[in-house]
Write a structure and sequence with these properties.
It is built from 3 helices and 2 strands. The protein has one domain. It has helices at 2-10, 18-30, 47-50, and strands spanning 36-39, 43-46.
């Protein structure tokens, strides 16, 4: 998840539109949230498992 923030910040965002910058900031913020859910009430799935 720290790589998401790093990669987003490393792109050439300074020349992008205001809308792009807002979306980029939203993605960077959301990438720090911890979330998990159960599939079929049995399996615990989190962001790490989804991105493998």
């Amino acid at each position: 998840t720290s790589m998401i923030t790093y990669k987003m910040y490393s792109c050439d965002w300074t020349k992008q539109s205001h809308e792009f910058k807002k979306l980029m900031l939203l993605i960077m913020r959301k990438s720090h949230y911890h979330y998990q859910f159960r599939v079929g009430g049995l399996f615990l799935v989190d962001r790490v498992l989804l991105t493998k």
